[in-house]
Amino acid sequence: MAVDSTITRAHQHATNTRRPETCRDAARGQGHDAHREPAGHAIGRSRGGLTTKIHHAVDGQGRPLAVVVTPGQAHDGQSLPWLLGDLRVPRTGAGRPRTTPAMLLGDNAYSSRAIRAALKARGITAVTPERRDQQEHRRRRGAAGGRPSKFDPVAYRNRNVVERSFALLKQWRGLATRFDKLAIVYRSAAVLAAVLVWARI
To answer: What is the pLDDT of residue 29?
Structure first.
């Protein structure tokens, strides 16, 4: 499974709605619930202005397994628990849906020690490159810094499937630019796009 996010610019028609006074308040009040409108309507301020992030968890063929929307300034790593929480993959035979992938491919935004520990506790192999500042911090600590995180560069090459999923997603004009005022409506369109991807099988 590969994870990543893409930023979409919010059109002025989507931003003329009441939001918390600051983007920090919007991010703090943002909780992922598909049946409830999040605080701030998942619109935040980033370098590109007022934006929304779409987070994808996709399988090895780039088919979306989970979709989450957050304000544009939200850190990618913060959305990972919501993506994993939405993961439900039906089995071919009897049994409960799978909720734990064998491997998670992500860029260095998902390389924190907390994320690695949480994935390890669930039996998920993290394939994420270690950030340079994390490497330097570990070296400064010497033996107390611990061993370098394991990284499989061959498996990491397959992370491009999530980038290709966003390229397909943004062929939809209404998703490439956010026109919807409500986050639940905007996310619904992203989920519909994922359904159509699976319907092509």
So the answer is: 41
